Amino acid sequence: MPAVVLIGAQWGDEGKGKATDVLGRRVDHVVKFNGGNNAGHTVVIGDEKYALHLLPSGILTPGCTPVIGNGVVIDLAVLFEELEGLQARGVDTSRLVVSANAHVIPPYNRVLDKVTERFLGSRRIGTTGRGIGPTYADKMNRVGIRVQDLFDEGILRQKVEGALDFKNQVLAKIYNRRAITVDEVVEELLSHREALRPMVADTGLLLQEALGRGETVLLEAGQATLLDVDHGTYPFVTSSSATAGGACTGSGIPPTSIDRVVAILKAYTTRVGEGPFPTELLDDMGEHLRKTGHEYGTTTGRPRRCGWFDAVIGRYAARVNGVTDFVITKLDTLSGLDTVPVCVAYDVDGVRHDDMPMTQSDFHHAKPVYEELPGWWEDISHCRDFDELPANARRYVERVEELVGQRVSAIGVGPGRDEIIVRHDLLDA
Ligand code: IMP
């Protein structure tokens, strides 16, 4: 079978791990195609909890080959820290492959990310401070450092010199920071070279060959649709392509090889960092969702902003990504409410919008138009079949399905691996 793309439909942290759990051992390759260690997912296997930031989740699935694609930016120190952490717990990490074309996050970009945010003050993006934005900017500016550069020391030095010529001016003259030397950067990058060498591959070729043999490739996005640099709530976005289109550019797999696009929708909405959020709840109900849903960032520990489900966003995600299947996660978090409001459209200065407003200003002014759905009180975590859900929980899912215009193929009802209801297989049609 096929190439399947897995993306987040909202602002991230939707719980993509739920879908990877379902796909589990039937996937031969899991590819991370964008982002870096700004992501964070917690995977629960038995009593063990794994927090991964950079490594693809497939690293935990025996027999699966995890791939870091060309669209990723890699902090090498974090890569080896995560690998060592997993090895210490007995996880076999030897199958990991890393694209020779992926960019590395040099130390100066971590510094620049943090000082730029501080400098922006109230205009800050609320980045994770991991150097993601400056590293993608370097890529587009054609002054980035790629994995393959580590294997040609002369070229590496030249590239670092070229980048630092400019960056040191900015660091010293604008931000009043210490200039960084070429030697310290080259030394840090080269300290990882030998450990990295056996992992490096032409991953585009490797994946195309795997598809040719009929193997299954899962392309897993970091972040999510509304954090995508083109299709998200710019400028409050990350700097990479987190939508289905990014799966092609970030992996080297052509669009014609992709058979399914699975999007994860949390049963309510969360976001971290700054930027507009029409259904945000700044009251006790927001706090209730945060507490009940354990909505604190895996990467930064920041409390996530919480709000009701927003069907305008769901419809937008369906359209931009060509979603074939939605997976709703954390439906259990909504148990115990009298009614559950769902945003079906926006009111922008007196005008109803069923689709995402065209401009950022209109999105900032969007007021949710709510429909109240009846709640349910039962514990649903033991449900494994759609018919076992309380009638009002079923009604909620069916209404979401109607509003977003695409089928809901699976529903998460608890944090554990098995706490899921599968209505349609995510690999076979
Ligand atoms: P950056 O990716 O660190 O540049 O941060 C840009 C924006 O994306 C900020 O609002 C971050 O909070 C957000 N962001 C980055 N990664 C994630 C993620 O994995 N989940 C949710 N938000 C994220």
Please give a quick description of this structure:
The chain has 13 helices and 20 strands. It is of the alpha/beta class and 429 residues long.
Structural summary, described in words:
Strand 3 and strand 4 (48-52) form a beta hairpin. The model has no long low-confidence stretch (mean pLDDT 94). The strands form five sheets. This protein has a ten-stranded mixed sheet with strand order 9-7-5-2-10-1-11-15-19-20, with helices on both faces. Strands 14, 16, 17 and 18 form a four-stranded mixed sheet that branches. It is α/β, with parallel strands linked by helices. The radius of gyration is 22 Å and the shape is globular. Helix 5 (153-174) crosses helix 6. The chain contains 13 helices and 20 strands. 31% of the residues lie in helices and 21% in strands.
Record the strand order, biggest sheet. Answer: 9-7-5-2-10-1-11-15-19-20
Q: What is the molecular shape?
A: globular
Quickly count the helices.
13
Low-confidence stretches: none
Largest sheet: 10 strands, mixed
Helix content: 25-40%
* Percent of residues in β-strands: 15-25%
Q: Nearest-angstrom radius of gyration? A: 22 Å
Number of strands: 20
Structural class estimated from helices and strands: alpha/beta
End-to-end span in angstroms?
11 Å
| Ligand inventory | inosinic acid
